[in-house]
Structures are given as C-alpha cells and as structure tokens.
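Deliverable D4.2, example record:
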Amino acid sequence: MEQKLTLQQKLLQKLSPQQIQVIKLLEIPTIQLEQRIKKELEENPVLELESDDPESFEDQDNDDQEPETDADNDEFSFDDYLTDDDEIPTYKTTTNNYSKDDKYIDIPFSVGITFHESLYDQLGMITLSEEDRQLAEYIIGNIDDDGYLRRDLISISDDLAFNMNMEVPVEKLEVILKIIQKFDPPGVGARDLRECLLLQLNRRENNNHKLARGIITDFFEEFTRKHYEKIMKKLELTDEELKIGIDQILKLNPKPGSSYSNPLNKSNQHIIPDFILDNIDGELNLSLNQQNVPDLKINDSYLDMLHSLVNASKNKNKNQKDALVFVKQKVDSAKWFIDAIRQRNQTLLLTMSEIINFQKEYFKDGDETRLRPMILKDIAEKTGLDISTISRVSNSKYIQTHFGIFPLKYFFSEGLQKEDGEEVSTREIKKILQDCIENEEKRKPLTDEKLTQILKEKSYNIARRTVAKYREQLGIPVARLRKKL
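Output generated by the structure prediction step:
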C-alpha cells in the first residue's frame, strides 16, 4: 500500500488550562470557593495567605550579634522525646485542676437513633422464631424513609428465594408484615396511602373516627379527588358532618417515617450570599461577599529558590533540573489560580452590575411587579460576555438585598405584551395569579378558565393553557384539589 505525506490546515478551538480553571471557578458559589481555596493551599506549597507574612524583626543588621542556629531557635527538640527513661513516677504526670468545692455535673448527650434502628429495637422486644425474626428484619430493610413498604410481597418472596435460599410463601410474609404494622409510629409498613391512613385510624378505637374510617374504606377515590358531593349524597351527610370526618383524616400523617426524629439525618441548607446589595439613601451599592474568602499570594521563599535555580550554572545536575521544573510548575500554577480568582470576581461583579442596572426599579424597593422581562441574552449583550458565561454566573448564586435573599435566576423571566403594547414580565402575571388564588372562595375555587378571564380583564391576553403552565410553575394544584369545605 502506497504511503503519502499530506499537509493540512485546520481551525481548532481549544481551551487553555487557565480558561478551564476560570470556567470551573465561575460555576461554584462562595461557600464552595472557600473549600476550593483550602484544597489549593494544601496541594500547592507555593500559595500562601496574605496574613501569613512573617513579622519583620529589628536588629537583623547588627554585625556583633552571632547568627542563631536552628537548635537555638527551637523551643524544644525531638531528641528530648527520644530518651529511654520511661521510669517516671505517675504522680509527676497527673494533674488535678478541680478543688473540693467544685461541683462536677455530667451533662448527658443524646445522639439519637434512626428510624430503621427504632424498628429493629421494637422487633427485639417481641418473641419470634429465628426464621420469623430474619424475615421481619428483611421486610424492615425494605421499608423506605417515609415508612412505606414500596415492594410487593411477591417480589420480596422471590428475593428471599434467590438471595437467601429461603422458600417463603406470601401468606407468611403477610403475617410478619401485620406484626410490623403494629410498631410505632402508627402507619409504618403500609403499602399505599389508603392502608397507611387506615392503620392510624384503627389505633384510635373511639367512635369519633368511625366516619373517617368509612370514608377511607369505601370512598377513598372520591376523597382524593375531593368529590365531596358524592360522599355526602351516598352517606347522607350534612356539610358540617362531612367537614368533621374530613378534618379527622387531615390530622393523620401521610408519611409516618418522615415525622420520626432522626438527628443523624438532618440536612439544613445554609445559604451564603455571593453578592451584597446595600441601599444607601437611594443609591445602590454592590459588593462581593468576600468575608470568608482569603487573599492569596506567592511565597517569597519559593520565588527566591526559583531565581537561584535559574541563575545557577548551566551545568546543572539532574536533581537541580528536577527541582527547577517542580518549583516553576508550582509557581505557574499559583499564578494561574490567583489570576483565575481575580478574573472570577471581575466577571461576577460585571454581570451582577448589569443585572441591577437592568432591573433598577425593582431593586429600589423589591416590588415584584416592577421586574422587567430579562433573558440571558440581554445581559450577555450588555457585558460583552458569552451567554454560557452568564448562565454559569447566575447558576447557584445568591444576592442579599435589603428586602431578602434571592437566587440570581429569580431575576430572569420571559416577556409578554399587553393589549396596549406594553411589555411585562411573566413574573408579574404569576404574581397576579397567586393573589387571585389566595383570595378566592375556597368552596368554589377559580378554574383556569376563570383565571384566564380575570387576566384578560386586566389586559393580559394569554391562553388558558399558558395560565395552567404558570399555575403549575407556582406549585398550585387545579381548582378541584384546592376545594375546601
């Protein structure tokens, strides 16, 4: 086969390591930036904090003073600990910092147990055969954090056959499950919402819950769809009687497992704003939240080392060449990281400043109806940055204002024209929808068709399907499910 040499020209777009680093730093919020800087400080010895500068000492030019040796500077030496004298009396190594008058109180500390640990503890309090206990433990292991057994007993029986070589009929698993369903919290081990509510109602043996049990047992479908008229007609109830039964059901817990106190599984999210906006006498002042972000610099010792290695004789040995490559690599990496942090801050401030200028009327008093329609492209054109850069800046970032803390994505919304030609933000329409639904008559909630008519009366000419989309984005259910007695 004949071989040929050809020459080609190609245009390729590649990102440099510095650009990749800036892009990654742009995406992370302030709280993760702190961790990223700490990681870089641990990995790169050339980087150091600005506050780590050693204090200048006087009398360094005193020729009469002999230079101190390392041994003189050390407060102690490791040799002091490498003695063979281990025969020290114990009374010399014990201390007692309390007097007889001091009152020592042992404060108990409770770690708590998890939801599943509680079920296993309750299982240990009942008498079962070894096989039944093993089956019960397996079923508890399949109960999720909400307290439900999502897998059907046939699948569990198959699992036991394949994984544990145990042939267990479904009827026996049903008996074991009934035992677990008597555990606390009430409703645990249910296979669906209906069974969960019935388990809780069966624990209450008074006649006051007879109506609630009847509704869940015979009219659960109508109850979930809020077809109250059908229930009232079939049970021959008045509005007040049905309301009492519904109120008893609403007091039950649909997720018994989630109500269990689990101190080991608490995940409270703390928001640290990336920007701080102050309104001082009508003037908006924007700043980056750099409270816990340290200033970085390059260690002078490594710079001196690099200069000395560069200025050394040309005939360097292998160790000197390796040292030169290592130090230069770390110094360059430190410079890139410091420059990336600086570039990140400039990009964030530039983007946020343009967002504030675009939404200036809103940021003055926080009136949601003053939000102008704004998309990523609008800010990209004003900053001269790419849309992807604006997207990275607005992702997972928060700003603290005098009227609350908001994610940057909150200020972006599409536009819509009113009948008079004025362009308004979709967020303004959502605010009107939310106000209408909050003030509606709960016995006869406003349908999407009625909400569309109300908006048209206010000169917002939008379709019913658009109203339904906005309602779903606000997390508001349909009119039928908002109905209350």
